[in-house]
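RETRY 2/3 - previous attempt timed out on the joint model. Re-submitting the same 450-residue input unchanged.
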Amino acid sequence: MKTAINFSLNGQKISVDVEPYETLLEMLRDRLGVKSPKCGCDRGDCGTCTVMLEGRTVRSCLILAIEVDGQKIITLEGVMKDGDLTPLQKTFIEHNSFQCGFCAPGMILSATELLRKNPSPNKVEIQEALSGNLCRCTGYSPIIDAILEHTKGGK
Amino acid sequence: MPLLHDFNYHKPASMGQALKFLAKYKKAAILAGGTDIIGEIKEGIAVPEALIDIKGLAELKKIEFKNSKLTIGSLVTFSEIIESKVIKSKLPVLIEVARTVGSVGIRNRATMVGNICSAVPCMDSGPVLSAYEATINAKGPKGQRKIAVDAWFLAPRKTSLKKGELVTGVTIAVPDKKHAGCYVKLGRYSGEDLAQASVLVLALPKNIYRIAFGSVGPTPIRARNIEKLINGHLLDEDIIEKAKKLILETVFPITDIRATKEYRMLMCQVMFERGIKAAASRLAGGGPKYGESLM
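RETRY 2/3 succeeded.
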């Protein structure tokens, strides 16, 4: 049975009718056209579907759309300010931190959450924070280097 | 991948309403963090007629410390455990355990109660609750029930929760005496892997220890035989060697995709030795910092 839900997506009010079995990931991509969260493993292991729910990163493939009624969601699209890349994103580009880019939205959201809680993490803390985001191209070093650089530069 | 079947979704606003929904369906499942149940529905392991989302029950979101008892509500996530000041000061080993669960994105959603309700043998919450002799609090149509942790885990994915009951939280009696714990988890790599084997050691004054293993049997294993051997004795190399031999009669792991039985048994000995030494040093005021990996 379809149920109407209301929530905030990147600061915008959204109302949608959803079936109980629709995941948050499916709703974002297929109904609302928000394409930064990706479907990788579809079981919570790879982190490509990461979005922020009430300020914390979550796996949108393991959450039902109906569960987010009344809540705030930020995707990578909402992290950018007025269409501008954030300093962290720019540092990622400078370090060539992505090749195919499939993991990028999740990586950036996880790094953003980490830096909010801990503005100057060390390498181990960065590795720990990103351990749920898999990258099959870079071998992780350019990603970790970018975050370290970002914290040093105080950008 | 779309979910394979349709189900009803209910989000009760009160405990009474939640219990009514549970009674109404033959096969209802509780939804808290959803990190297990949604995956199980996708894989067809769970086929509920209805999901009862308990996230509207504010009373289940609490972490309480009263009369030396720490109660963790069913909706408390692993991230909230890690960030809790009262847990950090009263039971820091619980934070050590929580930090090994999944990844940040999972811990932001997954709950400790969900972990022990799923009761998969490799769960991280089992050994700590076993060693600290926790009680599981459940509510049902007949009222409240307290279940000792030893009676809780029956088999893989099977607990003593009855149909129509809902777990409201877990209570751990924090020892009044000085105490220190240590959780050692073995994964294939560091970061987000499930445990191949795990051990939790609780050290109390006068050489008293409580020991529990995880992921090396169908349920967490409280090693009372080893406790009997070592308790009251000075922890020297001789007694540790004797205890390590006894481990081989205590744990009974299987061979699966993550490790062989033989490897798990050997590693239990290594992890036990490191864990008990670390717990003893922590009790004495030193030792590795909580959260530091010993593997």
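The mean pLDDT of chain B is 96. Closing ticket.
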